[in-house]
Design brief:
Blueprint lengths: L1 H26 L4 H10 L4 E2 L5 E6 L11 E10 L4 E5 L6 E4 L7 H6 L8 E6 L20 E11 L3
Antiparallel strand pairs: 1-2, 2-6, 3-4, 3-5, 3-7, 6-7
């Protein structure tokens, strides 16, 4: 009876030792080169449970939005090295979308739910939570990590 238990224990230990690096690699959504650049350029970023990196520049106040709410955002979107691909900084006509309904990239649906009204965040979204492998030619190349400066300027709560 002792030998099968020992064999199972050894096999389990072996699997953990061999699988641990692979499991860590699966959790990281940025390529090694992108991750290295991100960590050198923006040290001290926080990491969401889905792998999005962020820095709260201004915390804001109140309750964050919930799925179904219509949010108003001012933003600048850049590629990792700084080239702007899209922006909306018009206070009178901010970008609006219904949160959690797939109207924007998945990274936005996830991170905006963490923001409080009036907050401004630096957000770095891995490719699979942005435009993925196809990208969004010609402005966003294939497999691009994206950097956003985002300000949550309003929430229209779902009734």
């Amino acid at each position: 009876m002792k030998k099968p238990v020992r064999n199972v224990a050894l096999m389990t230990l072996f699997c953990l030792v061999v699988a641990a690096p692979a499991l860590r690699a699966q959790r990281e959504k940025f390529s090694p080169d992108d991750l290295d650049y991100i960590e050198k350029t923006w040290p001290g970023l926080q990491k969401s449970n889905t792998g999005i990196r962020y820095l709260i520049r201004r915390p804001g106040e109140g309750q964050p939005p919930k799925p179904g709410d219509i949010v108003s955002i001012l933003f600048i979107g850049t590629l990792l090295q700084g080239k702007v691909f899209e922006k909306d900084l018009d206070d009178k006509h901010p970008f609006k979308f219904r949160l959690g309904r797939g109207e924007v990239i998945p990274g936005w649906d996830q991170i905006v739910q963490m923001m409080k009204p009036g907050s401004e965040w630096l957000v770095i979204i891995p490719p699979e939570l942005a435009y993925g492998t196809p990208g969004r030619p010609p402005r966003v190349p294939t497999g691009s990590s994206l950097v956003f400066t985002m300000q949550l300027v309003g929430i229209d709560r779902e009734q």
